[in-house]
Amino acid sequence: MEKWSLMALTVLLALTVRWAVSLGSYSGAGKPPMYGDYEAQRHWQEITYNLPIRQWYFNTSDNNLQYWGLDYPPLTAYHSFVCAYIAKLINPDWVALHTSRGYESQPHKLFMRTTVFVADLLVYIPAVILYCFSLKETSAKKKVSSALCILLYPGLILIDHGHFQYNSVSLGLALWAVLCLSHDWDLLGSVAFCLALNYKQMELYHSLPFFCYLLGKCFKKGLKGKGLVLLAKLAGTVLVSFAACWLPFGTDVEQIMQVLRRLFPIDRGLFEDKVANIWCSLSVLIKIKNVISPRTQLKLSFAVTFLSLLPACIKLTVQPSLRGFKFALVSCALSFFLFSFQVHEKSILLVSVPVCLIINEIPFMATWFLLVSTFSLLPLLLKDELLLPYAATTPAFLAACLASFSILEKTSAEDLQLKAFSLSLKGYVSWFKSFPRIVRGLFLLSLALMGVLSVLSAAVPPPQHLPDLFPLAVAVVSCLHFLLFLVYFNVVILWDSKNRGQKKIS
Amino acid sequence: MRGAVPCRRGAGGARAMAAGGRGWFRALALGVSFLKCLLIPAYYSTDFEVHRNWLAITHNLPLSQWYYEATSEWTLDYPPFFAWFEYVLSHIAKYFDPQMLVVENLNYASRATIFFQRLSVIFTDTLFIYAVHECCRCINGKRAAKDILEKPTFILAVLLLWNFGLLIVDHIHFQYNGFLFGLMLLSVARVCQKRYLEGALLFAVLLHFKHIYIYVAPAYGVYLLRSYCFTANNADGSLKWRSFSFLHVTLLGLIVCLVSALSLGPFLVLGQLPQVISRLFPFKRGLCHAYWAPNFWALYNAMDKALTILGLKCNFLEGTKIPKASMTGGLVQEFQHTVLPSVTPLATLICTFIAILPSVFCLWFKPQGPRGFLQCLVLCALSSFMFGWHVHEKAILLAILPLSLLSIQRAKDAGIYLILATTGHFSLFPLLFTTPELPIKILLMLLFTVYSFSSLKSLFRREKPLLNWLETIYLIQLVPLEIFCEIIFPLTPWKRHFPFVPLLLTSVYCALGITYAWLKLYVSVLTERIPVRQKAE
């Protein structure tokens, strides 16, 4: 069969799965008074449509910031505005000021689901398809199967089309940026990334690799000649795109400061709910939130994050390469997720999407990571009654990965890109021969553990004195996984030397 | 799941191929099962309540009242084996939600009920998956393609497992066709593997699960008689009368009688057989279903309507004398044709019989082994669909699924399959009329259609194009038709006065395609010559 029809089938399948998931429940369905993210998005439509732009981020009598106040950057607000405009055409009740609060109905759900579906179809899916087509040194089949696995990644589908958010827009824009960078269109790439950043501030997780990669590229070209020109151009592009996004708010400083305060609410605490990062997991042992003052928490998390980022970023700046860039995206986002301040469980998607980008290079580890990341969202999905889509899409994704990459046979050190590392260890470790089997065993063990925990949290009521037992267990188990993955990705990045290419030639 | 490409290197290639073979089938089956699970919250039709009611009836009432109980309007109208099947299910259902087993709880649909009923369809589909596996085994893969995606067995597995019609009829609309078709395909596979007795047993059981399969019974009867009861042919392929085997006939008869006795026997003893039969064959229901199945009668009705309008315009007819019943209004009712003669059940029976006859003769006089059997089976199903009394649009699956088996063997059949499957599946669209399911049905339809076209095209790429220009244009025009029916028409003022127009257009347009496919298949079967080589068998 032709490449194009295979790709069309992949996209159709991905769209079918997305719409089928969207038939299910959403965050906060029928749960007054606060509802959930669905209501938040609807409320933003109401606010942006009815209030003048200068009041969007301010607490006024018409805009109670305590009730899902707008806390995303301007592009999200503009997107809400456009959606609200269409909503108004269909049914004005959906976005009526004040009276529409908590509005829920079947047609409205259909409308909201369609907006996510369209955003996904326009931004994320084309980026994935083009990215897979632009992969080098891969057969047509491999490209299609990569696209299939990336598009079937359950985490993003469940959060966007089940829980209800528009992550595919910001992540899709970031993908477009990666795509542009891989074609050496640096300016276009930085525009796309600025858009992503102005859609969701969480894209900051990805900003350092972008910065370091482009900076490294400028260094490579020589800071006195072409490099300086490129640097100036890039700086100019970034400034212009930011200015364009913030234009309506640029009238006075107070506006900008207020938006920034909304975007970075440092008074919200170190972490929320049960998130699979280091702080939440540590709080099982020590109640960090009580021991250390909030200021110190902020500083501490900042310091640890910075330290964990440092090696990958330095390496990327010194040796900028596309491959290194993708791996750095993963490891930096993971560092942010694990160590930074005020992390949501959904932020794991910011790590997962870069992992999707390297699924054809390290299929085994990527699949493993993507499964763990979906698992880490389980408590949230259970709250939203999305157990069924979770239980259907996750094994389906595993089956797709098994069928398209036969991942279980790719566990040797070479397949895991650990050849250089293992060579430098030779002589010290004697168990290297059975390495593939050990890795495979660990993988199966981890799968079993995740399966058991999923079943337990879905079916067994927790003991009364430990109501949070299962969410916490999920968080801790995922966190341990993520820590190991962080180490793994850093090892791959740091031991990735140029002699890889040279060896191939010789 | 499409990208199942196991690339194994080195020694043991054959074993690796076999392992890979299992792998892709498993991935396909698992994939579609997970998709079915995702469809659990989707819309379901009144058939959901029908089956819930049957669960309640069989669970609570003694056997003697199964076919008399009429609290709900959805009385038990499937043969006894299906009732027993519901009885078995009901004993699992009680662990999910005992309330669903109360006969008076009409339209009861708690979350657990939905979950249980949907899951019961998904799990019983295992039989279908197994049957597909067996069918793939008995199709001889002469063309050893290197690429797994171009293997005939792979294509067949996708065409059957991911069949659009089955997916939406069973897993959205709600019915249990999956395991019933599983029984049918399994019996077909057994007959093709020359395990005739097993095939006959399975088919007899199937008939007592759902009697609609009686449509294809002539093909079974004649083929078993020809190939099993007569054990040899003459050199020129004609029948050797002397080879008649009494043993084989007795065995076949025994199987059929035993199965029937098991199913109908208790009711015969209770003296309820007439009641059971009257429930099974409700001839009071009218020529066509609320939505006309795209068959000959749809064309006939449309012609009648057109002639009526024409007659009124030209004053041949008087407006006051015309009955006001519009058939597509949504109710099952008897309908008087105004210009053309009205059709009686007997007339449809005769038409069906005449339509089936040539294919059966063909099977008798031009035996072609399993392929001839399959052709006759498809023709029987299609002919009954074309002329039957009160045919449901879902019955088209009875022709599409067995034709999948033929489509991967010859380019000619592949072309017919593409026309029949596309129009037949399209004609199922009105089953799902709720807005949330609109994208699902379009996406699934596209998924299946794109796959069937591209895979069959690549399978037969060395031969001439599968479809000629006229057929291509016909199929492409389904797209504007769908856009008109689902999007443009609801926005026009006609929607209020002529709500039936989309249904009428769909069924008439699809009827053309299905009639064409039926004629084309008939012509190709009747004009086919027996290859000399086969005479030896």
TrEMBL record, chain A:
E.C. code: 2.4.1.-
InterPro entries: Glyco_trans_ALG6/ALG8
Keywords: Endoplasmic reticulum, Glycosyltransferase, Membrane, Signal, Transferase, Transmembrane, Transmembrane helix
Membrane topology reported for the UniProt record: Multi-pass membrane protein
Signal peptide: 1-24
Its biological purpose: Dolichyl pyrophosphate Man9GlcNAc2 alpha-1,3-glucosyltransferase that operates in the biosynthetic pathway of dolichol-linked oligosaccharides, the glycan precursors employed in protein asparagine (N)-glycosylation. The assembly of dolichol-linked oligosaccharides begins on the cytosolic side of the endoplasmic reticulum membrane and finishes in its lumen. The sequential addition of sugars to dolichol pyrophosphate produces dolichol-linked oligosaccharides containing fourteen sugars, including two GlcNAcs, nine mannoses and three glucoses.
UniProt similarity note: Belongs to the ALG6/ALG8 glucosyltransferase family.
Protein name, UniProt field: Alpha-1,3-glucosyltransferase
Protein's organism: Taeniopygia guttata
From TrEMBL, chain B:
EC class: transferase
Protein's GO biological process: dolichol-linked oligosaccharide biosynthetic process; protein N-linked glycosylation via asparagine
PANTHER family: DOLICHYL GLYCOSYLTRANSFERASE, DOLICHYL PYROPHOSPHATE GLC1MAN9GLCNAC2 ALPHA-1,3-GLUCOSYLTRANSFERASE-RELATED
Annotated family: Belongs to the ALG6/ALG8 glucosyltransferase family.
Keywords: Endoplasmic reticulum, Glycosyltransferase, Membrane, Transferase, Transmembrane, Transmembrane helix
GO MF: dolichyl pyrophosphate Glc1Man9GlcNAc2 alpha-1,3-glucosyltransferase activity
Originating organism: Taeniopygia guttata (Zebra finch)
Transmembrane segments: 24-44, 114-132, 153-169, 199-225, 245-270, 346-366, 372-391, 439-460, 472-492, 498-519
Involved pathway(s): Protein modification; protein glycosylation
Name of the protein described by the UniProt record: Alpha-1,3-glucosyltransferase
Localization per record: Endoplasmic reticulum membrane
Any single Gene Ontology cellular-component annotation: endoplasmic reticulum membrane
Claim: Lipid metabolism is one of the keywords in the record: no
Keyword Endoplasmic reticulum: yes
Topology term for the membrane: Multi-pass membrane protein
InterPro entries membership: Glyco_trans_ALG6/ALG8
EC number: 2.4.1.-
Pfam families noted in UniProt: Alg6_Alg8
